[in-house]
Write a structure and sequence with these properties.
Shape: globular
Helix content: 40-55%
Strand content: 5-15%
Bound molecules: zinc ion
Largest sheet: 2 strands, antiparallel
Mean pLDDT: 94
Strand order of the largest sheet: 1-2
Radius of gyration: 18 Å
Number of strands: 6
Order of helices and strands: HEEHHHEEHEEH
Distance between the termini: 53 Å
């Protein structure tokens, strides 16, 4: 394992959140979609189920996306965003244990607004990434026109595509290109 388990889970969830808006359109169009996302990524704690809560979650996405866009080359900029996210939510790291999870870090109380918990959880995970000098693991999907963010947690740093099927699409494109190249000229 590259990072602590909770860090990896948080990075994957943060990337998934960023990727709810992208080339495929809006995947969190309403509160029901947010409910589904909340469940799918194992979130717990207070919910409002309001348009304001949804908007606050939407507003977090471009700030997190910026972290991926800056990446390794933009470390100072990443740190600025991470520190701002922690500061704005008055993050206070505490080890907690709940549901099926063993001890892990929470830096906001469970009754803090959802967007602020999401922001801080992502920021805490990014703290680990920056401290370990692993920002190169945060990349943009290499399939042209995709633009989704990728968290590469593989041993050999081999993850190039996002989880929306871009790896398969790239393989098909490469296969067709090879076939076309090997076809004799008429
Ligand atoms: Zn937790
Ligand atoms: Zn992709």
């Amino acid at each position: 394992m590259l990072f602590a388990h909770d860090t990896e889970v948080s990075l994957v969830a943060a990337a998934a959140l960023v990727n709810t808006t992208g080339s495929d359109g809006e995947k969190l169009p309403d509160v029901a979609a947010l409910d589904e996302f909340f469940r799918a990524y194992g979130w717990t704690g207070r919910r409002e189920h309001t348009a304001a809560e949804l908007r606050a979650v939407h507003d977090l996405r471009p700030r997190l996306r910026r972290v991926w866009e800056l990446g390794e080359a933009g470390e100072d900029g990443v740190v600025e965003i991470v520190n701002a996210l922690l500061r704005e939510s008055n993050a206070l790291p505490q080890l907690v244990k709940h549901d099926e999870w063993s001890y892990h870090l929470h830096a906001t109380p469970s009754d803090a607004p959802l967007a602020s918990r999401m922001a801080v959880e992502a920021a805490m995970a990014l703290v680990d990434v920056v401290r370990s000098g692993e920002l190169s693991r945060l990349r943009i999907c290499e399939l042209p026109g995709c633009g989704n963010v990728v968290v590469d947690l593989s041993k050999n740093r081999s993850k190039r595509f996002c989880d929306a099927g871009c790896g398969n699409r790239a393989a098909v494109t490469a296969y067709r290109a090879r076939k076309a190249a090997s076809r004799p000229h008429p």
